[in-house]
Design a protein that fits this description.
By secondary structure, the chain is of the alpha/beta class. Helix content is 32%, strand content 9%.
Length: 395
Amino acid sequence: MAQFMRVLPILIVAAVLFVAVCYIALSPERQRVRPSSLNTVDINRPVGAGVKSAAHSSDALYVRPSRDLYDKVKVLCWILTMPTNHLTKAKAVKETWAPRCNKAIFMSSSVEPSIPTIDLKLSGEGRDKLWEKSRKAWYYVFQHFADDYDWFMKADDDSFVIPENLRYLCSHYDPNQGHYFGRVFKPFMGYASGGAGYVISRAALQKVGPLLAEDGKCGSGIWTVEDAKFGGCMKDIGVSIGDSRDKEADRFHPFVPEQHLIPGVIPAKFWYRDYVKYPTKEGPECCSDLSISFHYMTPNLMHQMYFFVYKLHPYGAWERDDQLPPPHFVRPSADGNAEKPEQKASETRTDQAAKLSTAVSEPKEQSAPKQSAAEANKDQVSNTVKIGNDGRPIS
């Protein structure tokens, strides 16, 4: 008996250590697993959520909401590039965010097998050719992929896009209805900034696609800057640009993070301030925590951004995603009609974060606030803004 009492403390310590090891091994943090497609980098076919780029040895592990969105909200991203950028900007896009789209396509005026790019058979390159290039790219996507994906995003080869946040936005809307999102500019009754990138639903692509087969079928009366012209085509099919802001701020950004985050970097009389429809902020409140895009990103800055978004995080502090409303997926029912959401959202995201309440269903799409007579007059003034020889507005 005395001998047993001597070994009893050792047995107790061993049992406590065993329980502790089991708890750590079975904790939720240890349950994060990499999808089997993690090492897939073929950009010409859909890849699994959590894909590892060729230039980054280990990406952040995906938790289940992001994996589910990848499977249920299918996004095709097409990137506008040119021969002089193939091995610099386009290469950086391929090595960073592009594989996180369900499919990524690079549109150009020549073939570069290492990306690879698609030759759109253009009459030339340059700012005055952007509408021709964009129109042909959209028509190519319409011809080959209109039925295969839910959402279609246009981005430049110096844009940085976070596809996971794009899917989260799109998950609250029905791709079988006409939708069009981006940073809203006021002229011509509203259109999406091309630099910030924009996304349209499958139904919108199926309606506008036939009009893009040749020039002149849509967007008449609008100067041929790519983004404004496309906005005119969307108007012609009855699809107006939606309000993609969340409770905090904008999600699509036409400049590098510095120009949005640091007050005063954007000049007070810069054309951008007259163009944006909704009030903007500078500093940390400039941008949604679920921002989707930034523009004018150099290849080096793109790799830095990728590291900060997907790899760097404070240990034990990332709980915010658990406080977001769950995505709402609109799936076709057996009779071919879209299923209706089971219930409406009754609280804002801020309320849910404060109360840590249970499930919330689809939030209603925000409608643009009614304009006063003064604001309408400002829009009219913006519509007559003069454009310089380089296609940019004259402030």
